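Recap from last week: sequence in, structure out.
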Amino acid sequence: MFVVFSLVIGVVQSVNAEVPGIFVLGDSTSDVGTNNYLPQSTIKANFPHHGIDFPFAIPTGRFSNGFNTADYLVHNDLLAFKGPLETEKFLSKSLFFISIGSNDIMNNYYSSNPIPKEYFIPKLGLVYEKHLRNLISLGARKFGIVSVPALGCCPSQRIYQANGECLEELNNQARAFFSTMELLLGNLRLEYKDIKYSLGNTVDMTLNVIDNALAFNFKYVKTACCGSGILNAQGSCSPISDLCSNRNEYLFWDSFHPTQTASKLAAFTLYGGEPRFVSPIKFSQLPDA
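Predicted structure tokens:
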């Protein structure tokens, strides 16, 4: 059910400590190009206009005009390690950045026979728990987890609303999933006393930016920068798509994914934002936890 699109080992700095590695397990919002090497994947971003603001304007496979949130949370230094004991020690001090669940909710919502939210969200939580327990059994102890964002506010969903507003049913499912994650992580913390986690409430993060767009220097929160049709969201981003020139003023790069500017803002919020956006600790506090 969960698809891992990227696995990155990096180095992140903190004031008093270092995390020796970060593993990024995520969907297309955090894919840094690993998707290019999955032959079975039919959805890729290794062509223009993707990457137009990346160094040398290279379309790396990121679903973005440049960098994404994962890039801003990690550096790209690689660390080699060998042996089970060394690996376990490495993993216990590493940070696991996880951002998954959006595709599962969207695919179920638009399936011909969708599972009701009251059953599907708990089921999704159980699958998430299984994967977390697998990571814990391997030695993982520090988790930076990003919940599902306000899916109903993506341009791809706004086009189905007569007034171009958010599709609230999808946002409600995202909220329900966040509540499930809060409970799941709290229970795991009681069971495994040595695990530490930071949970990002990206539903509220997204809505806060939309409701206060000008304060964050965004002029366009409904329309995609790269695409075609209504809200520039009826066609995927491609070399022949309509492309905005003022990309820093857009919240969304294409019909689903944030711009580089929005990704940077999200990373900064996860790293040091208010408790209503990231709890019980901030991502920046994980290295010392």
